[in-house]
Amino acid sequence: MQLVEKARHLITGKSAEKAACQYLKKLNFKLIEKNYQCRFGEIDIIMLDRQALVFIEVRFRKNKNYGSGAESITIGKQKKLINTASHYLQSHPESARYSTRFDVISISEEPTLSGNKIEWIRDAFQT
To answer: Does domain 2-125 have CATH number 3.40.50.2300?
Structure first.
């Protein structure tokens, strides 16, 4: 039973990441990489927004009983994201020409006319 729940959770997470990508692509963001991993952690999506390299954390919430997805990003999680982004930048020297920022996409199952509710927090935290 636990494996089924874990698999369902991962599928939901991947679906949320896909929805976030589609949402930002409609706003003319260019996908650079998905699920970048290193020893510090993982960044869900890396996209280019004009001259900014954007590191995006995607959070999904079935309901808001425990807060929004954005509220679940602790200081510890922010530090992991910052360290992972630093690793990415060091590993990809060509990215030095861009400014950087951290965005959060929070997706909930609250119904809207176009599907789930998407909340985009641009420049959600600083390094």
So the answer is: no
Rounded CA separation 30/78 (Å): 23
pTM of the model: 0.85
Tokens (6 digits) for 3:
């494996």
Specify whether the CB–CB gap between 113 and 102 falls below 8 A: no
CA pair distance 98, 29, nearest whole angstrom: 14
- Pairing of β 52-61 and β 99-112: parallel
Three-state secondary structure call for residue 75 = helix
Residue with tokens 């930048």: 89
The sign of the CA dihedral 31, 59, 14, 63 is negative
- From CA 37, how far away is CA 87, in angstroms rounded? 9
Question: Who's near 95: CB < 8 A, 6+ residues apart?
Answer: 53, 88, 89
Q: Tens of pLDDT along 85-103?
A: 999 999 999 998 999 999 9
SS3 68: coil
Rg (CA), the chain: 15
